[in-house]
Amino acid sequence: MPNADAKTFEILGYHVAKDKNYVYYWDEKLNKIDPKTFEVVEGYGITIFKDKNGIYTFGKNYDKLKVINFKENGIDIDFNDFKVISSKDPTIYRNKNDIYFQKGGKILQIKNVDAKTFEEINGRSYLDNKYYRDKNNVYYDFQKIEGADIKTFEPDGYSIGKDKTGVYYKTHKINGIDVNSTEVLENEFYKDKNNIYYRNKKLENF
User: Fold this and answer.
1) How far apart are CA 27 and CA 36, in angstroms?
2) CA atoms of 41 and 60, how far apart (whole Å)
3) Alpha-carbon distance 15 to 59, whole Å?
4) Whole-model pTM?
């Protein structure tokens, strides 16, 4: 890197580095970013960085380092108390007492959740990446699953989840299904010892 300070130079991520004077993307100096406070926030999947002024990630096709602009979305972020909960799609952030998600270039608040305990529930595959919980509830795609048990709930594939008392398709609890014998098939089909189900309905004449 031409003219970089060798003693303080360090690599932080994919073609991102800094020294005591500058942050660099490829071989370009990024003059508006503060090198003293610039650090990696999240390094899994989509790498996210921050400094005292903003939050940054890569542009499309890694062509530039772009600002995730919370201020343009009317959100006052405390960059010292900021965490990435999930870097999957959508990317989810925690800032003090609020939770936000980034979708289609917009940053929106997830309301009526407990920010301190809000987390992603890992499922069997990437198809299960819409489940979350906090100390009070389980959520599918940010919608509360009424009655779901936060301690025993697990995604089971294809938008189907279950806990110790029931089986759920997205946010819908399935009436009359036998939890212990439930088996997920594929393409939103599943069965128990008595019936076959598709999405939130029992299939007749099987």
Assistant:
1) 19
2) 19
3) 13
4) 0.80
